[in-house]
Design brief:
Elements lengths: L7 H13 L6 E2 L5 H5 L5 H23 L18 H15 L6 H15 L7 H12 L8 H16 L4 H7 L1 H6 L2 H5 L3 E2 L2 H11 L7 E6 L9 H5 L4 E5 L3 H13 L4 E4 L9 E2 L7 E3 L6 E4 L9 E4 L4 H9 L7 E6 L13 H10 L4 E5 L10 H10 L4 E6 L7 E4 L8 H4 L3 H13 L9 H13 L13 H4 L8 H12 L4 H14 L10 H4 L12 H6 L41 E4 L3 H11 L4 H33 L4 H5 L7 H15 L15 H7 L16 H8 L6 H8 L2 E4 L5 H12 L5 E4 L13 E4 L9 H8 L11 E5 L16 H11 L1 H9 L1
Parallel strand pairs: 3-11, 3-12, 4-9, 4-10, 5-9, 10-11, 13-18, 14-16, 14-17, 15-16, 17-18
Antiparallel strand pairs: 1-2, 5-6, 7-8
Helix pairs in contact: 3-4, 3-5, 3-7, 5-6, 5-7, 6-7, 16-34, 19-21, 26-28, 26-31, 34-35
Length: about 850
């Protein structure tokens, strides 16, 4: 897996991170303009030629049709300057190709926005506002070689439209979900830049060696490139990347190898001799005479290693290994998720963690975690580091991402926001203060809900304004360019804490009364069509007994038994049936302590008839027996051919094989023909057309509903596994996998690959996997049984699995129990992770020493 190169898009991002170490303000934009499409050197003369040939007539037609503005003149005094014949011929030759690609060329897209503005504005149709907003914000992107004449026309149109006045700002706020959150153009044309936290991190180390040591407390939301930051640091330093979740380290390794970095691995090492080099890192090795490929590497020579990836147990081995080849001031220890296991008083890793801290000799350390305790909470840890590295500097880097919006949904299917959650205004103020101190929580304020709140409070209905003077929409925002997802959410917090306490009760009641379920409002096909719900009797008991037939519980295929309105606390629960259509755009992760219980529930709720389950189970059992026989015969063949000195020669020609081996190979072929292909009707696979026709409200197909993509090859691989329960194989046919401790490591590896490729409909996992589940999810469900085991810090970590894509989709976090939905309030009492960290780190020299004694 780690040898497979990352995609070209991902490689561009990784290159940006690496180049950004020396150039933190780096900005790239791959949007295609006419110059880049033609692949010609950008010159003033060519820009003029392109404008006159492709854009001038189109702009002139708009000016003439709508009687506004003027046509930009191409060059000073060059209005009548003819196009050179050579350039004209060249433009003619590429015209046809350009016309078929105009939807991908930035200037044509901009002109389309201009056309829509000019179409809707004179008619008083507010649709113009969407295109105006989009034109303004896409113009801000630093796209190279935009045609300046087209930009001039667009800028003039923007000024003209803004001068027309109207309730533009209010309209944008009211429709902010469509204008901002779901605006594909803003994300399509966005600049590719470093995150602010990456800029700050690189600036700490770019000076290099001025301080005798650096401790960096690196807080940034998950999914914002923290674990890829070592690639930038490795441009100047050697990096020891420490992780608990092994596949997070392997994800970094995959990216590093794709970028030609020299890496090494230290997993489960007792001594430095257990460290293994990747081939890029090998300095001394032997090669195969015939192929010329590396055959044996001398892992003891690590001069070339730029990044060594290790687990907690192997840190000291990795540290000593890197110190053998590099000065300590040129090494950085990058500790990923150091709070793992710190949410409990005692854990088997605690002694190792404390020993690593106590015996660490590297003066440059980065503690990277989205929920790292604040400086004041771990003052003892900081003091301990400074005591051992005299003069060391401590830097806190805190960053947040408000380019995406993730809705929190309670057990009844309603979106949760501070203004709907708290009837007590004092609780609202506490909530606002907590969010301001933890700005990463801004991501979990649903844009649509807060826009509706702001429209009521700041715009008002029937002339009733509630907000304070100075906080009206047109007073707060001075330009359309200022209206962004982040600024609206910050505006929301300001408005919340500016209200009068005696008016809050009325506001809260109003917003609660207007609340509409986001999920769980629809039923199955019958319910949605308005058909009466009825109880179906499948078999008459007396008739069955008279006929001597055995009694079986059966399930009707009609959707009549599904509620049209969910019972309290069950909204969005039926993820394989009536609620499946609400899981859109990408995979879902369901977190629960008892993974097997949830798996059994969804298998039972899927309404797969007993006959089909029996047939599939029988086929799986039969296949298991066949695979066992195949394995035995394959071992017998290997044993028989191994005794033959000319095995390779004879295996290349079946006719030369001994008769006994030929007979076994014939038996092997016969056995393989007996393997039954496992399949499940589409009606039982969530979100297929047949499934939605049965379960979605009204049988209406939701084109955004996400479904699994499990090909026959994967099904065959899973079917061949003999040490995994049949229920997991059946669930996989539905697109459901699991991350839980299985004896079958092959199953886990297949699940990881499918998760990475986003081919599973849903993954059920225990909370232990949240730190290491470095995959892309669009939805998360937090199970009821997490109530007593999940801290607020761990909850934030789990929620960070959602919304990691580069574009905005419909992201949701669904709580199965509202009692632990404490995200918006500060933690009551002491932070357990800070307490345990202080005990293990600052008290390491005493406590571990005493335990060892």
């Amino acid at each position: 897996m780690i040898e497979i190169p990352v995609s070209a898009e991902e490689k561009n991002i990784l290159q940006l991170i690496m180049d950004g170490f020396e150039n933190p303000t780096i900005c790239r934009n791959k949007t295609e303009t006419m110059i880049s499409f033609i692949k010609i050197a950008p010159t003033e003369d060519m820009e003029r030629t392109i404008y006159k040939f492709f854009f001038e007539k189109e702009i002139a037609a708009l000016v003439k049709k709508y009687g506004v503005l003027s046509v930009p003149v191409a060059g000073a005094g060059a209005a009548g300057a003819p196009i050179r014949r050579a350039d004209s011929i060249r433009m003619e030759n590429i015209s046809e190709n350009i016309n078929s690609n105009r939807d991908n060329i930035f200037e044509f897209i901009q002109l389309d926005f201009c056309k829509k503005i000019l179409k809707y504005l004179p008619a008083g149709d507010k649709k113009y506002a969407y295109y105006l907003y989009t034109l303004i914000h896409t113009n801000k992107s630093k796209i190279p070689h935009k045609n300046k004449y087209v930009q001039e026309f667009a800028a003039n149109l923007i000024s003209h439209t803004l001068a027309a006045g109207g309730e533009l700002y209010t309209h944008i706020l009211k429709n902010s979900q469509d204008f901002i959150e779901k605006n594909k153009y803003i994300f399509q044309f966005a600049d590719l830049e470093l995150y602010e936290h990456q800029r700050k991190l690189f600036s700490v180390f770019r000076g290099g060696g001025s301080a005798p040591g650096n401790l960096v407390l690196y807080l940034a939301p998950t999914g914002t490139g923290k674990t890829m930051s070592p690639l930038g640091l490795s441009q100047k330093f050697r990096v020891i990347f420490v992780c608990v979740a092994r596949h997070v380290g392997l994800a970094l390794a995959k990216s590093a190898i794709s970028m030609g970095k020299s890496i090494a691995f230290a997993f489960g090492c007792e001594t430095a001799g257990d460290i293994r080099l990747h081939y890029f890192s090998a300095k001394e090795y032997t090669t195969n005479r015939r192929s010329g490929m590396i055959q044996k590497v001398d892992n003891s020579v690590g001069d070339k290693v730029e990044i060594i990836i290790c687990d907690i147990k192997s840190y000291l081995c990795a540290m000593n290994y890197m110190m053998a080849f590099n000065p300590i001031e040129e090494i950085i220890t990058f500790w990923d998720e150091p709070t793992i296991t710190l949410d409990v008083e005692h854990h088997e890793l605690h002694d190792t963690i404390a020993r690593n801290w106590r015996e660490n000799l590297i003066p440059n350390m980065v503690l990277s975690c989205a929920t790292l305790p604040r400086e004041e909470e771990i003052a003892d840890v900081i003091a301990d580091f400074r005591a051992r590295f005299d003069g060391a500097e401590v830097t806190t880097i805190s960053s947040y991402d408000i380019k995406k919006s993730v809705a929190l949904i309670n057990k009844d299917g309603y979106v949760v926001t501070p203004h709907t959650m708290y009837s007590d205004y004092a609780a609202v103020l506490s909530c606002v203060e907590h969010i301001e101190q933890t700005p990463s929580l801004l991501k979990y304020l649903d844009l649509k809900e807060i826009a509706e709140f702001l429209m009521y409070v700041c715009v008002g209905w029937n002339g009733k304004h509630i907000c304070k003077r100075g906080l009206g929409v047109t007073e707060y925002f001075s330009s359309v360019a200022e209206i962004t997802m982040g600024s609206i959410k910050e505006y929301y917090l300001k408005v919340l804490k500016s209200l009068r306490a005696d008016s809050w009760g009325e506001i809260h009641k109003h917003m609660i009364a207007r609340a509409v379920r986001k999920i769980g409002g629809g039923g199955g096909a019958a319910a949605a069509r308005g058909l009466p719900l009825q109880k179906f009797v499948s078999v008459d008991g007396a008739a069955a007994r008279a006929g001597g037939a055995a009694m079986h519980k059966t399930t009707s295929l009609e959707g009549g038994g599904v509620r049209s309105t969910p019972a309290p606390g069950t909204a969005g629960v039926f993820l394989t049936t009536s609620d499946a259509h609400t899981l859109t755009d990408g995979p879902t992760i369901y977190l629960a302590e008892d993974v097997n219980k949830i798996a059994r529930f969804y298998l039972q709720q899927s309404n797969i008839p007993e006959l089909i389950l029996t047939r599939i189970s029988a086929a799986i059992t039969q296949n298991n027996k066949v695979h066992e026989e195949i394995d035995k015969i394959q071992r017998d063949i290997e044993d028989a051919t191994a005794r033959d000195s000319e095995k390779e020669k004879k295996m290349s020609n079946d006719a030369r094989l001994p008769p006994a081996v030929q007979q076994m190979m014939g038996e092997l072929a016969a056995l393989r023909r007996r393997i039954q292909y496992l399949s499940l009707d589409d009606i039982y696979k969530p979100n297929t057309l047949e499934h939605q026709a049965k379960w979605a409200p009204g049988g209406r197909v939701n084109p955004a509903a996400f479904m699994a993509d499990i090909d026959e090859h994967i099904v065959e691989q899973i079917a061949a596994l003999t040490n995994i329960e049949n229920s997991w194989k059946i669930l996989l046919l539905m697109g459901i996998g699991s991350f839980v401790k299985h004896e079958c490591t092959e199953y886990i590896e297949i699940m990881k690959r499918l998760a990475y490729e986003q081919k599973l409909y849903m993954i059920i996992a225990s909370s232990d996997y949240i730190f290491g589940t470095n995959y892309q999810f669009c939805h998360s469900v937090l199970g009821k049984d997490l109530t007593n085991v999940i801290t607020q810090q761990k909850m934030i970590q789990s929620m960070g699995r959602v919304g990691r894509n580069n574009i905005q989709r419909d992201y949701t976090i669904r709580f199965r129990d509202d009692s632990y939905m404490t995200l918006y309030q500060p933690v009551r009492g002491e932070n357990i992770e800070a307490i345990v960290m202080s005990r293990l780190f600052a008290g390491a020299a005493v406590e571990v020493g005493e335990e060892g004694a």
